[in-house]
Design brief:
- The structure is a single chain.
- With 211 residues, the protein is mostly helical.
- The protein has a domain of 121 residues.
- 54% of the residues lie in helices and 0% in strands.
């Protein structure tokens, strides 16, 4: 008589396990389909302190030295691409952009009563008058030198710790040709204007805060 083999019946998986797996799959699908797209998120507001001008600068002016001379491009290696020394000269535009900030600086109560500061301010105003009129024959050099002398007067009045920077700027100004045609002249003017803007930015803070 043949022997019959009886195999134990395999138990079916628990229905609760199937329910849990189904919920897990549903939750994963919901997450991937409904998660927010980063591109749709609104941009975070920029803090006011990041765009506020430093004390002493005119409204709308940035405390960054680069912002005051942004109109001055890097000099190229080809003289053919250099702009002519006209009213549209980058260095001329940058100097005139620097002028309102310089004027507002020397109008501070602790500076405007100083005779030397007033004299140098008058010299600067006279030197830049022809540039503001758009005279293409006007040299940049008087305005550049006058700006350096004005900052030197401010330094001597209120910022004794900036003696090296102010005198260095005056020396740099006296070495400029006053033209803005060749790449070399553009580079020299740009370096001077950046140094002048940096010194002006430092002086826009109270003397007690400048180490």
């Amino acid at each position: 008589m043949a022997e019959l083999r009886i195999q134990p019946k395999k138990s079916a998986p628990s229905p609760w396990l199937l329910v849990a797996l189904a919920l897990l799959v549903l939750a994963a699908a919901t997450y991937f389909f409904l998660r927010p797209d980063p591109a749709d998120e609104p941009a975070r507001p920029v803090p006011a302190s990041a765009t506020a001008p430093a004390p002493g600068l005119p409204p709308g002016a940035s405390a960054s030295a680069d912002s005051l001379v942004r109109a001055v491009p890097l000099a190229t290696d080809s003289a053919a691409t250099a702009p002519p020394a006209t009213a549209a000269s980058p260095a001329r535009a940058a100097l005139l952009r620097l002028s309102p900030a310089l004027t507002q600086l020397v109008d501070r109560p602790d500076l405007r009563d100083d005779a030397t500061v007033r004299e140098q301010r008058d010299n600067f105003t006279s030197a830049t008058a022809r540039l503001e009129d758009g005279d293409p024959r006007a040299s940049l050099r008087p305005g550049l030198v006058a700006a350096a002398n004005l900052l030197l007067a401010v330094q001597q009045k209120a910022y004794p710790n900036l003696d090296a920077e102010a005198n260095g700027l005056v020396r740099q100004a006296t070495q400029l040709s006053g033209r803005d045609t060749t790449p070399a002249e553009q580079a020299q003017n740009q370096e001077y204007l950046r140094n002048a803007a940096s010194l002006l930015n430092t002086m826009s803070y109270p003397a007690a805060d400048v180490l």
